[in-house]
Amino acid sequence: MRQLLIALASMTLTAAAVAKLPPPSDEAKAKAAEAAAKTAHGNRVASFQLCRSMEKVAARYQAEAGKAGKTVNKPTETAACADQGPFVPPGAASAAPAKKS
Hints:
- The protein is mainly alpha-helical.
- The protein has a domain at 24-69.
- It contains 3 helices and no strands.
- The protein has helices at 2-19, 26-67, 92-95.
- The mean pLDDT is 84.
């Protein structure tokens, strides 16, 4: 019973503390958006690196199996690994001046 009362009191105090937080400023929102974009880009880069390493392992396995005289099934065709390139912060592409032809 005591633990239940402690838990209820903590939830009440937490709710009161969260309710008093001011809304985030535009600058804080922009920083949060940039952090989310960096995280997403990092995840895509990690996926690309994983894809490349899996391709290398598969190619090495097929080459070694071929040298050993084993028959290897034809690999399943998958999408090509897509390189994401360098990170570009959100809004940076639209802020850059357009080149005139």
